Amino acid sequence: MKGRVGRFLKEYHLRHHYNDANTAFGVSNPLWDYVFATVPNHTKNKK
């Protein structure tokens, strides 16, 4: 995916692999991380 959404999803999931393997499981949709309370702190802090 290109554009803002694509960049966000790529960064979001790469943080799962390289920063914290216990969060950001939603590969193409972060909604599930909100459902299962696995949203990474860097995303929570942007609000």
How is this structure best described in words?
By secondary structure, the chain is mainly alpha-helical. The radius of gyration is 10 Å and the shape is globular.
Throw out a few tags for this protein.
mainly alpha
Strand content: under 5%
Structural class, from secondary structure content? mainly alpha
Total individual domains: 1
Helix content: 40-55%
State the separation between the terminal residues, measured CA to CA. 23 Å
Total helical elements:
3
Largest sheet: none
Q: Total strand count, please?
A: 0
Instruction: Give the overall pLDDT as a whole number.
Output: 78
Q: What does the overall shape look like?
A: globular
Radius of gyration: 10 Å
| Helix and strand pattern | HHH
SSE blueprint:
Blueprint (H helix, E strand, L loop, with lengths): L2 H16 L12 H5 L5 H4 L3
In short:
The chain is mainly alpha-helical and about 45 residues long. It is built from three helices and no strands. The longest helix is centred in the first third of the chain and has 16 residues, at about 5-20.
